[in-house]
Amino acid sequence: MIHDPTQGAFARALRRTATPGRALAGLALGVLLLVLAGCGAKTGSLHLPPEDSSVAPRVDWIYYFVYWICLFYLGHITLVMLWFLWKYRRRPGVEPQASPSHNTPLEIAWSLPPCVLVVFFFVYGFQEYVDISTPPADAYKIQCIAKQWDFRFVYPNGGKSKELHVPKGEPVEVVLESEDVIHSFYIPRFRIKQDVVPGRFTEVWFTATTATKPGEHFWLFCAEYCGDSHSFMRSKVIVHENRADFDAWVKALAKPLSGEEVFQMYCASCHLKTEAALVGPGLKGVYGSKRKVLDAETGREIEITADEDYLRESILEPGKKLSRMGREFPNVMDPSFATKLKKSEVDAVIRYLRDELK
Amino acid sequence: MSLDSPNSYLKKTHCILGYKGQTGILSYLLTLDHKRIGVMYLISTMTAFLVAGLLALGVRTELLSPEKIMVTPQQYNRMFTLHGAIMIFLFIIPSVPAALGNIILPIMLGAKDVAFPRLNLLSYWLWIVGAVTALVAISQGGIDTGWTFYTPYSTSARPGVIAMAVGVFILGFSSIFTGLNFMVTMHKLRPPGMTWFRMPLFLWALYATALMQIIATPVLGITVVLLGVENIMGVGIFDPKLGGDPVLFQHFFWFYSHPAVYIMIVPGFGIISDVISIHARKHIFGYSFIAFSSVAIAILSFLVWGHHMFTSGQSTVVNVIFSALTFTISIPTAVKIYNWIATLYKGSIQFTTPMLYALAFIFLFTIGGLTGFPLATLATDVHLHDTYFVVAHFHYVMMGGLVIAMLAGLHHWWPKFTGRMYSETWGRVACALIFVGFNITFLTQFLMGAQGMPRRYYTYVPEYQIYHQTSTAGSYVLGLGFLVMLLYLVHSLFKGRPAPANPWGGATLEWRCSSPPRYDNFETTPTVGDPYDFSDLRYDPSIGGWISNDAPVAAGKAS
Ligand SMILES: [Cu+2]
Prior knowledge:
heterodimer, A: alpha+beta, Immunoglobulin-like, Cytochrome Bc1 Complex, Chain D, domain 2, 3 domains, five-stranded mixed sheet, 9 helices, B: mainly alpha, Cytochrome C Oxidase, Chain A, 16 helices, globular, binds copper (II) ion
């Protein structure tokens, strides 16, 4: 049973594939591959989320360029391997046939196409990258302060928010700084990501091309592991239809925050509005309750009533008295609220705890 | 001792590699025999693999839902940190060189032992001390930094981290000593006639690995010392609060850990080259290309570390340079695949368990390699970095690549060092389960990552749930595959058919001595031929193995 590879299997395989059933199967496979690739990129595909920034379509183009070439390589490697496996499977009485154990021209020939292809990958990738990493000079600047475990945004007029608001169709540059460890600013729908490194400023820019519908938003994720609540460190990104809309929104921000807004923005990452604990104790019903606390100065247990003074002290000088004897919770409350919050905002949040979270 | 029949030899042994007059646990723990040291490494690293694998199943189970299923965020973070750290430092890095390498390398060379048997034993005990230190660190307050230990998170008041670092430091020495030992062994103990280009490719791969271990691992040591200096003496190196630079840590870390990635995978290339050739009864195609590419990879691996940091804020120019260098290392890695496939051409391919693993390796490693391209391409990496796409990519390379190659090698050499055959049927079943489970688990993660799911997340937005559930389901199949493997391998130790000297028809020297080998491996120094020339071997059904054409039919004497 000696085989001549040029005569037998390949020709027979061709003949066999030419039946209607196989043609259909082939077609189905082709369709499947197209679906896998995803043509309607604007609405998102199996691979990539919708494209909502100016760089996204170009990044996706490169992604698919690389993807198709890789699929071609995987495909032919697998098929040739399966073909050999079938054709040269061990059968009684059939000995392996002699063939050269190396062939320099062949080895060079199959090394060349990958060498050329990676040059294309490299060049496309780096050209687009230079764009992604160079903000235009006229970009609208927003400051972002990342800390465990949220992002905070400061707009040019001093207004602050937890959600990122931007106008559609205009380049926006976000200047990033971190108060503690490394975080990363990642908006998948915009295809951008930039680490936020303590001790230095980094920046990232984008032009949003889709406005978010009322009640909807894009996600901003922290993509660099930053501790316990890393996966909770995400913000909403809201794209306003036009600049006028956006400006009106920013203007309204400059007012001092209401008690509820302060709570949402500064406290909700650690405290729930119920009695259940998160990083810190739930704050429902704290006001007016009698509680045993650990006085950090004397190290003794004292009983107090949680009045306004106690709440104020808890917010402005956390750690001075530790709730539940300092046993259940780590003493990690942010010590800088005295500078971060306006006095009226501290009053407002205390009123909120007193009136709304009874 | 007569080698006439492998069975008679086996009857005189008490346990795996139990030698006459050398029984008892102490004779094992203090042995200078490379095979026993290798077996101890094998048991230790496989235990680490088991623990880390169970942790992975825990992580996957928690991810079935964005809500809490069984652990808190903090426990979850500790779990994935331990999974990564144990897998990398206690399993992947030592598994092939230290475990399989120790068992096989000297026999492949026709030598009696490695060049420095005492250093070898020291390496093993350093490994144990390092592992125990790390375990103590963990029990002293969980470590939740990720296996990458990025500063300043890792140094902000986490006492366990320093202890863990000390453990890693000690493990580093174990790795360096093993590398040195192997290198000297290959230089000095090759038998007459074995020129560099007559060495089996597994040895070339171990050589390249040793080179990287010796050059890269000291950097890990230095990093750990700097961390200590900062923490204890308050000198600002990495911590921005003290005037240090956290990105500097990433440079140090990846300057070691990128070569380490190749320390992990290159020995796998060696195993695959040998297994494919032997089980297809065909001379390896392009021997010198494969041999040189291992060395080329070893050198280039020192020049690409920056590609882990494209989004860290390092300068654009630096990123562009690292991207270009990364593409250069992809070529020698990728083209090898063609060599392996060309080896199959006109062969006589037998679908034994080791071969199935080797073939699975080709498929999985190809995917792992190809998905490196969108990560090396700068524009797409910005989107994909630190998402599940990266997680899937390195699992295809590390697990689909190295672990599968290690399993190929384990099944290939199992009869040699245990003297027992395992059940082929169950071997194939386990291989199929592992292959299918692995692909379900990690193909899904490519899609999830490209959709924007960040890695190391305890909770996630609901859009990603379906991907997570599919991936978790796959991981259970994978776990089942490993369970089956554990059962039949252990079973084979007690009930397995005694192994012939050469069950697969290999032409490298380790197949010339009995299974298991005697204490000093060979009675006489074997003569060396082309390691990939199988024409001199024929199958003898009466012993279920291969013998030399000149051997008389009845006796299974293979020399
Ligand atoms: Cu973060």
